[in-house]
Amino acid sequence: MNSRLELPASETAFPAKKPDLMRAGLLAFAALSSGLMGQQAYAAKDAGCEGGGFTVELPGGPVSGLTETTVPASGLGTSFTVRGKFVVFEVDSATLGVRNYTLTGAPNPQDMTGGVPTTIFASKTPDLQGVTLNGNLTLEIEGTDVLLSRNGPGVGMKIQAKDCAQGGIFQMEPERADGLTTDFTHVLADGVFYFDNPNFRNPPALPLCTPPNFTPQCFPVPVTPRGNFANDVSAKFVGRDSPQVATRVSQFGGVSVWRVASGGRMGGVLGEDSVEVAPPATNCTHKCQAQNRVRGRFPVLGFPFPVPQESRLTPRLP
Q1: What is the DSSP code (8-state) at residue 96?
Q2: Which of 161, 171, 157, 313 is nearest to 242 (CA)?
Q3: Is 64 in contact with 81 (CB distance < 8 Å)?
Q4: Which residue, 86, 27, 77, 31, is CA-closest to 57?
Q5: What is the number of alpha carbons within 13 Å of residue 61 lying toward its C-beta?
Q6: Contact 208, 269 (CB under 8 A)
Q7: How far is Cα 318 from Cα 314, in angstroms, rounded to an integer?
Q8: Which of 9, 160, 165, 315 has CA 20 to 30 A from 285's CA?
Q9: What tens digit of pLDDT does each residue of 100-157 get?
């Protein structure tokens, strides 16, 4: 029997879009560690990022440290690697699609892999409808954050990533001059699977919070079904796809397809933040700001390990 996950059409995990590409938006990555949660950033916690920082490995040589630069299109090659202490992934120059998004398993108190390098996504591919990104690459590195941005005829793509062991540490954002949507296909790596989290089907009997009195002893919003991904190797490894202004087109055990509005985003959230109950973000695609911030933690429902077979989505492929 096929297992089908019914979820709300739109979910979110990343902060509202930043007016300044690096400084304002990437501050939202730190929201959780400072005790501030908005509508909403799931942020990487400071301890999970200690010692992190990316190097972008380009044909002309590696780029690291505090950097704001423009890389000529001729210096990109067909692909390049973004390598951090905790995260590494390859980027397709023509689309800014991602391949082999991997947790390195480097020692960290928030490591979810047991020290084992773990590839999560074989690929995250945007369908640019025949357009090739052919402009220069904007590259910014600051601390544990990296921003990549490149344009083509009528289309732009951005990647924001953070080098941390878990948290809200990745997002991709399309921009289209024609205002049309962009489909993103996520293919999980071998051994990683999507599942319908049974802990969200049977949540504890907690009352709804009265804003702004959010605590782990009450739910800020009604609990709805939650799609996560996990594996059979690491008892702490769990994550979720995190769309903002996006609709799920299809969902299988190893593949998901999302339709993202221009200016919307597809994020990735790992660890505790992916299995907690938190308020959703606003539907915002232009100069968005995190609003209605609240102090305190939200209930964390976790997930069963190993994940029961009946909760895993089947078939694995379309």
Answers
A1: -
A2: 171
A3: no
A4: 77
A5: 2
A6: no
A7: 9
A8: 165
A9: 999 999 999 999 999 999 999 999 999 999 999 999 999 999 999 999 999 999 999 9
Q: Looking at residue 97, what DSSP letter applies? A: -
pLDDT digits (tens, 9 = 90+) for 269-310: 999 999 999 987 655 555 443 333 333 489 999 999 999 999
List Cβ neighbours of 20 (8 Å cut-off, separation of 6 or more). Answer: none
Residues 248, 250, 256, 262: is their CA dihedral positive or negative? negative
The predicted structure's pLDDT at residue 285: 53
Rounded to whole angstroms, how far apart are CA atoms 242 and 71? 29
**Which tokens hold the place of 239?**
């994550």
- Cβ count within 10 A of residue 306: 11
Give me the residue label for tokens 């209605």: 292
Q: Tokens representing 114?
A: 């047991």
Burial class, 135, CB count within 10 angstroms (exposed 0-12 / middle 13-18 / buried 19+): middle
CA distances from 305 to 65, 189, 229, 231, 238 (A): 39, 19, 12, 9, 10
d(CA 269, CA 275): 9
The DSSP-derived string for 157-176 is: EEEEEE--SSEEEEEEEEEE
Q: How many Å apart are CA 91 and CA 99, to the nearest integer? A: 6
Three-state DSSP state, 62: strand
Is the Cα dihedral 81, 92, 237, 264 positive or negative?
positive
Please state, in angstroms and rounded to a whole number, the distance separating the CA atoms of residues 34 and 239: 22
